[in-house]
Amino acid sequence: MRTSGHSGTILFYSEASDPSWPTELQKAFPTFTVRTRPEDTDPTDVVAAIVWKYPAGMLRQFANLRLIQVLGAGVDHLWSDPWLPKHVPIARLVDPGLTARMTEYVLLHSLALHRRLPELRNAQCKNTWCYLHPRAPADTCIGIMGLGVLGRSCADALAGIGFNAIGWSRSRKPNVAVQTYIGAADLDEFKRRADIIVLLLPLTSATENLIDSRFLAGVRDGAALINVGRGALIVENALIAALDAGRLRHAVLDVFRTEPLPAEHVFWSHPKITITPHNSSATNPATALGQIVENVRRAVAGEKLLHLVDPVIGY
Ligand code: NDP
Ligand code: OXD
After folding, report:
1. Distance between CA 202 and CA 177 in Å, rounded?
2. Which residues does the annotation mark as catalytic?
3. By 3-state DSSP, what share of the chain in percent is helix, strand and coil, each rounded to 5?
4. Which of 97, 199, 200, 289 would bridge with 151, disulfide CB 3.0–4.6 Å?
């Protein structure tokens, strides 16, 4: 799809995305000028900002901005900008490629945890034959916290290969194939059931530090954790204490409070932690460009945007 009959500047700002984005955007928006540096724009000409982790205050100079399009699924980095223009609508991406990669990652690590690969690897490091009898996936309950676009896809895929998948979300929704638990009232029961907990929650004021010592005290003995949501969902000291006490048997962490994770961080060398560098998934021009083009068209035409973010609830 192409936009036509409009002109103006689109600012693309990201230090951590596929380098082909600016070229692909310029091809997709032949009547707009795509810029990657705010200082190279006439601020009054900028109609759309396509951003991932931009410097605070960058957007306030654009008086005619009609769209803030976040180049990813999570939008939490926006809330730390005290000068975020409040009147401009914010949209996030729902990228089928990102969903597919995330689903692969959650399947990969769920299977690894279910088949006890971390324990087998530790035994191998000690030249130890550690026979662990394999169990059927139906005997492992995987609890997904956050049943949105990503959580639902993971739940379906896990259930599809025989896992006993359950989910937890803020509101009840129809047409979810797995058993769901809702809000604070259901959380204790949810976490008592899950052998593996997958965090696919957005970071908001309600979810920050949710995985604290109180939460971890109530999980099943020897449960495992996969965090692909955001680092600040977890209280780090509480996680280490739960792993050291054997309350949790392993944690797979893809996201961290500080990224890149500092070289001296205790997580790196912990024998019960697997680290990946926030690469469980990523946004791709091939699968995400179409909806950005459509959103710019809608913004310029004054129509309702796709995948609008609600600033009040924070996702
Ligand atoms: P969605 O907005 O589609 O889904 C979010 C889910 O979390 C919804 O089910 C929502 O409930 C639930 N939720 C939000 N707040 C609460 C709460 N207080 N209590 C209970 N449930 C809550 O997001 P996505 O699935 O697209 O993405 C989820 C997160 O994954 C992103 O925000 C981002 O942080 C992370 N992410 C990480 C990536 C990585 O590379 N590691 C890549 C992409 C995303 P409800 O359905 O009731 O609204
Ligand atoms: C996202 C991410 O939120 O990559 O899209 O973390």
Report:
1. 21
2. 230, 278
3. 35, 20, 45
4. 200
Q: Which residue owns the Cα nearest ligand 1 atom 43?
A: 73
From the CA of 206, give the closest atom in ligand 1: 18
Edge-to-edge order in the sheet of strand 9-14: 33-35, 9-14, 46-52, 67-70, 90-91
Indicate which atom in ligand 2 lies nearest the CA of residue 71: 5
Do residues 83 and 55 lie in contact, with contact meaning Cβ atoms separated by under 8 Å? no
Question: For residue range 125-142, what is the model confidence (pLDDT) as tens digits?
Answer: 999 999 999 999 999 999
d(CA 274, CA 251): 6
- 74 Cβ below 6 A of ligand 2: yes
Among residues 187, 209, 194, 106, the alpha carbon closest in space to that of 149 is found at 106
Q: Is the N-terminal amide bond of 22 cis, ω within 30° of 0? A: no
CA of residue 138 to ligand 1 center, whole Å: 25
Predicted TM-score (pTM) above 0.85: yes
pLDDT for 125 equals: 96
Q: Does 106 sit in the ligand 2 pocket, CB within 6 Å?
A: no
